[in-house]
Structures
1.
Amino acid sequence: MSASPTPSPAALTALADRLGPDGLITDPAELHVYECDGLPVHKQAPAAVALVRSRDEVQAVVRWCGEHGVPFVPRGAGTGLSGGATPSLGSVVIDLNRMRAIREVDLENRFAVVEPGLINVDLTAAVTADGFHYAPDPSSQTACTIGGNVAENSGGPHCLKYGVTSDHILALEVVLPCGEIVRIGSPLAEPAGLDLVRLFVGTEGTVGIVTEVTVRLTPNPESVRTFLAIYDEMAAACRTVTQITRAGIVPVALEILDQRTIRAVEASVNAAGYPEDAAAVLLIELDGLAAGMDEEEAAITEIVNANRPLSFRGARDVRERTALWKGRKGAFGAMGRVNTDLYVLDGVVPRTELEATLEKVYEIADRWGVMVSNVFHAGDGNLHPNISYDGRDTDAVDRVLKAGREMMEACVAAGGTISGEHGIGLEKMEFMPLVFNEEDLELQMGIRDALDPDHRSNPGKIFPDMRAMRKKLRGAQSGARP
Amino acid sequence: MTRAKSEREQAFLPDVGDVAVPETIAQLAELVRAAEADGRAVLPAGNGAHTGTADLPKNPQLISTVALDRLETYEPDDFTVGAQAGVPLKWLREELARNGQELPVDLGAAAAGTVGGLVARAPLGPRTHRYGSVSSLLLGANGVRGGGHAWHSGGMVVKNVAGYQVGKLMAGALGHAGFVTRANFRLRPLPESRSLRVATGTPEAVTRCAHALKQSGLEPTLAILRGRLVANLRADGLPVPAGDVAVAWGFEGSEPRVKWQGAQAAHVVQGARQDLDLGPEDRNLGGRFLDFLADFAAPRGADLRDGLVRLVVLPSRLRETAADLAARIAGWRSEPAADSGEAAIGSWEDPFLGTIVLRWSSAELGDAPVAVCTEIARRHGGMAKLLSLPPDLRRRWPHELTGNENQALADRILDVFDPARGFRASRTAATVEARA
């Protein structure tokens, strides 16, 4: 992590005065809460935490940081899994959770204007009675924020049909690292000029802080059907997914849990009744117009049965549907039962490579002597190998990181990439050369530099140290293009 | 290698020489560097099918990617394709159709243009509201920017958040950020059935019907059509009753779903039926109709006679915008002329997107509609973009008719792609002239 001068007490006092009572945290004991996000491998307490309430306060903090040469790190709920919200040394965390209002809902034009600290699921809750929802649904949606979703270009189980966050963001208000406020995009069907919104989504807070988001609202489907297929071998579950894809059927979700995950879930408060001796369970969900859904269900049933499940059943009502999903949604939380720490990986492969890549993941884990469980968005090839370990065991940590790297290499070798939805953050900086060469990274960093020449906005994230990278790349035998 | 200029290129850039056609990325990079060293603007040219959509620089070096024409990766089982920029769209469409697949972007009957041009223009189409924009379908891209630097972004997988989404920035950039040399897309299955039904009537009845269909919960492609567009549809053999204002809708998907929706739509239309003349439903003509609309909204190859503007407003404002526009152009002939059989002006409204595409005969109306569209778009809080005009008129207007308040920010980013400003010489002509 990059070093920077620690702000002086006098400077921090001035900032506290600007933010008002309870606006700034400087107590070291309280700062520890912010020392990491959902990736505990990297920890760094910030110099201070600004609890902002408005765009103007965000701007004031950013300007203050500019005046004092202090980096800043935007933070939503801190549920990110790549260290994107981990502070850098001497930084000020800008906590956006107090900015959680819904400013406008326009159902006729199908958009809403919200503040970045709004919790993802609360947005859907606000519009569901009117027949709409906000489609991106990360597993952490009961805690994660819209601003964080924008920063990471979050996905979720239902993005198979509905797309990821960048497909649902129409406009942004951004405080740039220099303190300038810009509004990009609009609710209109196309942008004027360059599509800057598409660029900003997924920049992980490295080119400014989002202070307002205009999101697309999606009409609720007329009909939803949810099914659970249980298999005695993972390969059969993967083949089912591949064949459904090949058939051109686009369910709204295709999710797989492996046996270790099933057992952890069934031992937790989110037990869903999954059989613990199953090798894999596959959740399949269709939605849309009721007409034609019988035919889709028949096609899927045929494919599932061709792969010899132990059982296959559909949810008969909302209660059963919720129960089927409960286990999937609680899977990550359930892993806390296995060991004290969890390294959640996030790689993507073509759907045709699911079976082979999973085999590789298990082989890598066995070879390194680490315990891996898998729960993943099979429908879009987005794997989440979860490695449970004891963070106090330095040898275990070392093996976990090495196993994780090999798993990422396996995803890339299969024609995939190193992140489907969790972002790069700190965790995957070293993997960027697996998928980008020097020219690719120079372009991205050039964009970053154009908007943040002083590298104050969430520095030390996404892009590796270029000097070290050049040395590594020039020693490598070939470039790293997919 | 070079190629002769297309008819559009010749019309818009008569003083520019033949088009350079590099056969490799390295050659393309070298051409870019050479042009920059000479102080010349660079204009990505494709096959010249749509020249004149983007603002044109003075004396550019025309460079075409048509020789970069390999289908590099096609995974039918994964519904993804990666094609070099010079791959013709018509050929790509046929190739995908062989596997019962499509890129769900409406390309028109001729599907003129190339993959690179498709990304550069990122046109809106009648199915954009359903399947997403070109940017949404784009999984990754490769390009060459200023200085001849090659880059890539994204990949071949359907979810990817590794690094900045640079490739997405290229969609709709009209070549201002350099060349696209390859684009990767996600595909969809070709629908089993595509239906079409058209009703004509008074403007009020047609509008009422369209909006009833929009609110119905069904999943139509939906269009309100006026003037010469209606006449042309009829002349093309599509089942359009008499009249010059029409609403057209179609469904696509499995046979049962299309059939059911068609029946439901009939009930909806029945409720809004006053003053409507309803044509028959045809469950095979939907594809032709989509092509027709896409062709209406695109510059038509060597045909340089027409003017073409797209207005975009919020869907909730489409009715009043369309009424305002109709009132302003009421004096312009929308009836077919006795001699040519063609009306001067026609339009297509998309109630889902909030767009109006206006097409007119510039021989009769010159560029008068451009100012009208610009004013109306501004009045209704929208935007207007100029898509085509004959060369002598085109030079008077910018592509972004209603401006771009983020141009300064965009330029900061474009300066990374194009430090020499050779790809943006249309907006910095003074710089180019000074260099020359």
2.
Amino acid sequence: MKPSGWLFMALSWGLIIFLSVFSFYKILTKKKVD
Amino acid sequence: MATNRQTWGTRLGIIMAVAGSAVGLGNFLRFPVQAASNGGGAFMIPYFVSLFLLGIPLMWIEWTIGRYGGGFGHGTAPGIFHTMWQKNRFIKYFGVIGIFGPLVILIYYTYIESWTLAYSFFALTGKYAGVATEGAMQSFLRGFQGLEHNQHFSGIGVAYIFFLITFILNMWVLYYGIKGGIEKLCNIAMPLLFVCGIILAVRVFMLGTPDPSKPAWNLMNGLGFLWNPDFGALKSAKVWLAASGQILFTLSVGIGVILTYASYLKKGDDVVLSGVSASSLNEFAEVIIGGSIVIPAAFAFFGPENIQTIARGGAFNLGFVTMPLIFQKIAYGAFFGGAWFLLLFLAGITSSVSLAQPAIAFLEDEFNLTRKKTVMIFGAATFLLCQPAIFFLGRGVVNELDFWGGTFCLVVFATIEVILFAWVFGMEKAWEEVHHGADMRVPGIYKFIIKYVTPAFLFFILGMWFVQEWVPLLSMKGVSGADRPFVMGTRVFLSLLFLGLAVMVKLAWNRKRKGGAR
């Protein structure tokens, strides 16, 4: 894999992991649906 | 106003259910091929642009209008559209697409889902052990599908049994409703799906160079095939179309299932953060897990020349021919093969129950039928409707159903939704509605994006697809003479189905008018 390939993979994974962690962190620190 | 409609048990429950609806076979089979064939790593540029300008806005729109309509007792698009534009007598008939589309997809999707259940059984019991070439594995698949008789299968009997099991499982889940059925299923299936996916991705990442005599056939080069960017591809409209199409398909927006699921929310439940969470789960399954299994593994075992042919062979070939061949070449292949097909089955069943729910919600909400009666009627009708996809498989029926339900309806319905939301309902009112109970503010720029950019994007896709793909498909280009009657028959059937659903909408509204209800 070329360095640019690694970069795109890392950026894509990073963005998605950030979105996932961010959203679930915000959910867990808020009140749940009752 | 709303009567005692079902509600979701927990916030995580609906997120898992929407993510379950979104995560399907396409995450693991369609995405990797689309990315590899459309610029590799560079594909992620139009992909993420489409996610933020098309996918997530549509996700927010569907969650919002679903919750809004549910507050008036409507769980499907005819009623929801009507509450958004009450002055217009006809808008509810456009909403029929939101019941028609999911139903049309369901009637072939259930059969394909049953293949994944069958193949998990075959993987674990060694039924395809020793089937070592692509041609032989294709023959195995064709024998299973009843398209040929061979030493593995003498007819469609085994496939039909697995279809019956899958169908009954779906109905069983639907019988127990939103909280007791769908939510419970997704709370178990989705974590299990991610566990299977991660196990498989890790196993693929440990492949290294399976054949030392072919050092170029290795995992790193396989990942490179998917991720190395070809920036020249970005100049092609085809690539942007492929990326935006993939986003629409993968998030399941524009089908009508998310707005049905959201109709079971309460008015004060958040849709913004929940919509982002469900989308991010889908993207995790697609980009991280989906991007780490089939293409890298196929490259490592079949090499750079064959990978092009494999990628062009289509999703079914990849999933049911290439992958079983690969699993037979690795230690504990039966376990990993079982995990692969279980992954696909879990992705499938969490999607199929969502495809069924709009029709069920329609009968419950608009005709006041009990859930038991609804599931029985729906089950009987759908069982019959599923038969053509099974017995006319090689005749172009599935392709036709997939086009109308899974492609045409999707982009038309998404366009109607966004126009209704931003231009008829009105952006100010819509913005306020989105933020009821929200745990996160939508960035202000989305007021502009939802009103102008998302619709423009959808019109672009609609126009390009119409010219490039739909005109040849409608004229049955490439369909053999022997298959034409089946394709025409499917079109007649779909027209009658749409008409029948529209008549049911009219009957439901007449009923309500006589009863004095809204």
